[in-house]
Amino acid sequence: MAGFGSPVDDGSDVGTLEAWLLADPDATYLMRMEGEALLDTQVASGDYLLIERTRSVRAGDIVVAEIDGDYVVRFLRKNGRGEQYLEAANEMYPKLIPQESLNIEGKVIACIRKYEN
Fold first, then answer.
1. What is the DSSP letter of 68?
2. The domain containing residue 75 runs over which residues?
3. Which of 54, 59, 63, 96 could bridge across to 86 with cysteines, CB 3.0–4.6 Å?
């Protein structure tokens, strides 16, 4: 049975939710997830993703990317030759290998699901 949560009292200095989540507020935005590409990570259509525009992305990060003219949210991966591609967390979606271009728009830093309107 779940009880009431208690404020953080472990000596950490969390402060506000905004301060905890946003390293660079001017480079951060919220977008609504559409589709089931990340379903196996428990990110569902309708969830909100907090995106940070950053150049420091690496293989394994969930990113918002423009690939061959389409925008998607996927895991960034690298093959054995160091070439980047995108992979869903749902076996129903194929790997996306760029034919012309792959531009990373930002990195997903949080998923927010609101249970009430």
1. T
2. 25-112
3. 96
